[in-house]
Design goal:
The protein has 176 residues and is mainly α. It has six helices and no strands. It has one domain.
Length: 176
């Protein structure tokens, strides 16, 4: 290929990618919430659960949590906000999808994440309060699973280089 053709292809790919991103981003509903934020002001990341590209968003967040560049609390709050936005739009299936993502983040939480997980749970409780009957089972299951994960968060995070001992009879790990 000559330079002109390569340049045209590059421009075409960039324009197509930008168009896909713009089309995939749904418009956020405007609604006030108890915390004083409007739905459009909530941190929902790049894509919401009704986007075809939402899987990329959640995968990116899972990788970030795994390598330590994102906290489980931040991801949990983002998933809870996504559930709120989807609920405001009446898209309860997408709200449940976000709630399941909140479960994933809660299962990766440590002691430093407790406050953020609790904030996310409060947001999810607000979503449940507004939910129609058909969405209650999935949302309530997600909330119950997040509560269980929160109860299982170790109270202390081992310092770097420390490893937990084998679990004693009560099941709690001790740190050396």
């Amino acid at each position: 290929m000559n330079v002109n053709t390569t340049h045209r292809l590059t421009v075409l790919v960039v324009v197509a990618a930008a168009a896909c991103l713009l089309l995939a981003m749904p418009a956020a509903a405007n609604g006030d919430h108890e915390d004083g934020l409007e739905t459009a002001e909530l941190n929902t990341g790049w894509f919401t659960p009704d986007s075809a590209l939402y899987g990329l968003e959640t995968a990116w967040d899972r990788v970030g949590m795994a390598v330590g560049t994102k906290s489980a609390a931040d991801v949990a709050e983002k998933r809870a906000n996504e559930a709120r936005v989807m609920a405001d739009e009446g898209n309860w299936e997408a709200a449940e999808r976000a709630a399941r993502g909140l479960e994933t983040a809660a299962n990766r939480a440590d002691a430093e994440d407790v406050e953020g997980i609790e904030t996310a749970m409060a947001t999810l409780e607000g979503v449940i309060a507004d939910a129609p009957e058909e969405a209650l089972d999935g949302l309530q299951t997600a909330l119950t699973n997040v509560q269980t994960a929160t109860e299982n968060i170790p109270e202390e995070v081992p310092d770097a280089g420390e490893t937990p001992d084998a679990a004693p009879e009560n099941g709690a790990a001790q740190v050396n």
